[in-house]
Design a protein that fits this description.
By secondary structure, the chain is of the alpha/beta class. The chain has helices at residues 34-46, 59-75, 92-95, 114-121, 133-136, 159-177, 187-204, 213-221, 235-241, 244-266, 294-307; strands at residues 2-8, 50-55, 79-84, 102-106, 125-130, 148-154, 270-273, 281-286, 312-321, 324-333. Residues 1-29, 318-327 and 333-340 have low confidence and may be disordered.
Amino acid sequence: MTLRHSISLVGKNRSGIARFQATTLGRPQGFRSNAALESLTKAREERTQNLVLYNYPSFSGAFSALFAHLLHRHLNIPCLILPFSSVEPFRVEDLCIDGVEKYYFLDFLGPKGFAAELSRRTSCQVIGFDHRKSTLSDIHLYEDHNSNLTYHVNLEKSSSSAVYDYFCAKLSETRSNNGHTANLLNSEDQERVEMVLKYIEDGDLRRWSLPDIKEFNIGLSIWRSKLNCITNPHMFEQLMKINVMNLVAHGSATIADQESLSSKFLEKVFKVRLGRGLYGECLGVRIDGNPNLSDEIGKKLSIKSEAAGLSLGLLEQLFTCKGKILKCVCEVKIAPLIHL
């Protein structure tokens, strides 16, 4: 199902410049931090034309931001690109900046009513991209005839792919009007990046149909901590270099290492008497310091428990929190397999 929701209206009011409070001093570098707010101040001073917000820490959001970066670089149009996180989100007043002509929301539409409020408080166009079913239920919240708002919600295409196609078309349209031709990506990068987009889309849309998609996602996960362009100024260059084959190879190696290590833990399986034997017995294993192995070990423990005629297994893990040693025990049932 594809929904393209577009409303074109003019806002009545334009807010003043956002006032940045002294209370923001000492904020960490990221999201609504000193660095982010200073970037917005600079954008106001330089009358930056476009402001791009991307969903963090989403790979679709990060790649969408990459394509926005490439488009504006090709056209030599000033723009500011910032990550938007629900952990410490921007406020509408932060973004109401004189000089901005267009706002992009990439791979999200913001908190409920956020984009609509921004469009009402400025005379600027607000364009959003998303692919999630949950977004459809909120579309009615934005059917406001006092806004200048356009949403591209496509359930059959991930946001990164939709944004890529959108900016490719924008560049082609602009350059053709000037009698020139240009591609968003050069021929050397295009095939590699488009293949990465196909794999990201396969996961975003929960299809899981492409070869080695599990290995790809495991390999891709190591990049998640690098998706903040404020704390990682080299993010766009790094995204351009991502290669499906390399990620699959890394994911395969990680899976092999996890299987080997989980097998070693399962060599130390022991029986546990529940309620001093009153409630029967089960198999248990300690996985201290290896929480990433809980799923793999849980599956193998369930098989061992079933073979032993037992109904469940226990995963026990010791970990520290604020200097205290805590214990976490997970129950693993045979059918269906459940982590409680």
